[in-house]
Amino acid sequence: MPWGPSERPPARLWIGGDVFLGASPEGRLAAIRDLERGRAGAVNLEGAIGEAAVAEGDRLIQPPSVLRELAGAGVKVALVTNNHWFDDGVEGAFRTMDAVRAAGMKPAGAEVLKLGGWKVAVTAHSLEPGWSPCDLAYDLKAWRSRADALVATFHVTGPPLYRPAPELEEAVEIALEAGATVVAAEGTHALAKVERRGPAVIAWGLGNLAFACDCTDEEDGLLLEVDLDGQGVREAAVVPIEAGLKGRPAALAPDAPDVYELLDLIGSSPLRPEGPRARF
């Protein structure tokens, strides 16, 4: 929606899915950098930051050069609250947070960004098996009270399915009631529907962005783009992504119309393709 010259410009944010760049991260996010200039980014960072890349079983560790690639793509928030957060132990988790900050980004957890004259709280919660929602509403309301807008993200550990997990459905409703105007989920490596509900938008699964591990072969991903302020989301769009798997760089999806058709079939809000993105 339009805004007058006397109003503050909106906070402009993009959110990507699962990221593990491995031993050779250079250039893996160049297409994202070129597409999203001027927007602040947030991605799900899978695995601790250590001296060298490790991808053994369920254990993921990435070298510090990964953070330079993320920062170069405009990432401002690395979402670290996921099932790989302690892959290098408790000390490794704290080292990762320090390394993220040293690279000019914020590790979430929960953080507040200043974007376009607005304070935007970005939270990350992991919905592990056995997860309980008892403290979620309190936590989200507390962060909403510190900012003009709340972006709530959820990491889901489970198989790559189009249908949202029951725990995610519950968490999304809690987030909306707590005042979130953007809710995004990642972790299953699969994309899912996108939805607009009044002033709020929900991305039920962003899929992979770039993942240098044999543990996933899901190539379809999404970037969620939002312009928001204290009243809600002014503009929302998704960009279909061909995930950078097994050392390849992430790229714009060559079959975007097929992705839009899939999103429609699984229950997304109506999409309006415009260039590399579709608004909703």
Largest sheet: 11 strands, mixed
For this structure, the CATH topology is Purple Acid Phosphatase, chain A, domain 2
Strand content: 35-45%
What number of domains? 1
Determine the number of helices (DSSP H or I, runs of at least 4 residues). Answer: 6
CATH architecture: 4-Layer Sandwich
Q: Helical percent range? A: 10-25%
> Could you tell me the mean pLDDT?
93
Which residue ranges are poorly predicted, with pLDDT under 50 across at least 5 consecutive positions? 1-6
Structural class: alpha/beta
**Estimated radius of gyration:** 17 Å
Q: H/E order of the elements?
A: EHEEEEHEHEEEHEHEEEEEEEEHEE
- Oligomeric grouping of the chains: single chain
Cα end-to-end separation? 12 Å
CATH superfamily: Metallo-dependent phosphatases
What overall form do the CA principal axes indicate?
globular
Structural descriptors:
six-stranded mixed beta sheet; 20 strands; globular; eleven-stranded mixed beta sheet; 38% strand; Purple Acid Phosphatase, chain A, domain 2; alpha/beta; disordered N terminus; 280 residues
Brief summary of the model shown:
Helices cover 21% and strands 38% of the residues. It has 280 residues and is an alpha/beta fold.
Question: What would you note in describing this structure?
Answer:
With 280 residues, the protein is α/β, with parallel strands linked by helices. It has one domain (11-279): Purple Acid Phosphatase, chain A, domain 2 (4-Layer Sandwich), CATH 3.60.21. The chain is built from 6 helices and 20 strands. Strands 1, 2, 6, 7, 14, 15, 16, 17, 18, 19 and 20 form an 11-stranded mixed beta sheet that branches. Strands 8-9-10-11-13-12 form a 6-stranded mixed beta sheet. Helix 4 (136-144) runs parallel beside helix 5.
